[in-house]
Write a structure and sequence with these properties.
Number of helices: 10
Shape: globular
Order of helices and strands: EHEHEEHEEHEHEHHEEEHEHH
């Protein structure tokens, strides 16, 4: 009997998400039956009962896969049976699957981000100044920081509260010790390593992780970044008139600004970057790549990326 896939996204808010269009397109392209629903779950503790109820649906087989977004990428973890090696070391989950009788948390944000950046700007890895500035210290920032540190970058982290950035920095430093070995996870990470053959971090190379308060930028930077990644919600529909960086921030030509926000298509930060001569990327590429990896975890089928991209373009009227 053919399975009907019941998939969904848990977060708050979720009404502007492109994920339903993306995953419905993937199911349709492969001739698979199913749907993708949105579950608006308030931040804990208010949303705890609903979060538990949705996970019980997954355990019972009423749901077959779940994406997780702000604000639950970290708070969902204690309610899961186990974590993949990558989700465990990053400390954030964006994909949940049932394996046997266990509900397991995965992280496809890290490989999804790296896949997209590598495809578009592989030349960044040839630059001696591989210094990235990550804005934010939540689940998405954790994934991006791990991905960049694992592939040879130096990283500075800036958050609204410097203590948040410091906590994330300390976590990364603890993992990226002299005994660091790349995560071996055939479902989630090593596939990306094999496919892209990107340069893994040499454990003997110098590492630099710097914690900064957003209000201290740009003066607190120890060196100019080659890459800036916005992993904050600033720029999303609910914060569409805001940018995480000050208006007078110096976007030197050649800097790549990668805004994980994908709706609206162009954020205030992206406009700032372009006006300063920098290269600006939206989060659509990462959205597609992390969704494709999630889809493959749920279905075991190779994700049809082109129909998924077309679904996004249609949704945004591109």
């Amino acid at each position: 009997m053919e399975r009907t896939y019941r998939l969904g996204l848990m977060g708050y808010p979720v009404q502007h998400s492109l994920s339903p269009a993306i995953h419905q397109a993937a199911l349709q392209a492969l001739g698979l039956s199913g749907d993708y629903r949105l579950f608006a779950v308030e931040p804990l503790p208010a949303g705890r009962d609903k979060l538990v109820e949705i996970l019980e649906q997954l355990r019972a087989g009423c749901l077959h896969g779940l994406n997780v977004t702000i604000p639950h990428k970290q708070t969902i973890m204690p309610y899961l049976d186990s974590l993949s090696p990558l989700a465990d070391v990053i400390g954030a989950v964006n994909t949940v699957c049932k394996r046997g009788d266990q509900v397991i948390g995965f992280n496809t944000d890290a490989p999804g981000f790296l896949l997209d950046l590598w495809k578009k700007y592989r030349s960044l890895w040839e630059d001696e100044n591989r210094h990235a500035l990550i804005l934010g210290a939540g689940g998405a920032a954790r994934a991006v920081a791990f991905a960049l540190l694992a592939s040879g970058w130096q990283v500075s982290i800036a958050a609204r509260r410097r203590s948040q950035a410091k906590t994330l920095c300390e976590m990364m430093v603890n993992h990226f010790s002299n005994t660091f070995q790349p995560i071996q996870d055939p479902e989630e990470w090593s596939w990306v390593r094999q496919e892209l053959s990107f340069p893994w971090r040499d454990s003997r190379s110098p590492r630099m992780v710097q914690a900064i308060g957003l209000n201290e930028l740009p003066l607190a930077l120890s060196s100019p970044p080659r890459l800036i990644v916005n992993a904050t919600p600033l720029g999303m529909k609910s914060h569409s008139n805001q940018s995480p960086l000050p208006e007078d921030f110096d976007f030197s030509p050649g800097i790549v600004v990668y805004d994980l926000v994908y709706n609206p298509l162009e954020t205030v930060l992206m406009r700032q970057a372009k006006e300063g001569g920098a290269i600006a990327l939206s989060g659509i590429g990462m959205l597609i790549e992390q969704a494709a990896l999630s889809f493959e975890l749920w279905t075991g089928a190779s994700a049809p990326r082109e129909p998924m991209v077309q679904a996004v373009q249609s949704f945004l009227h591109l």
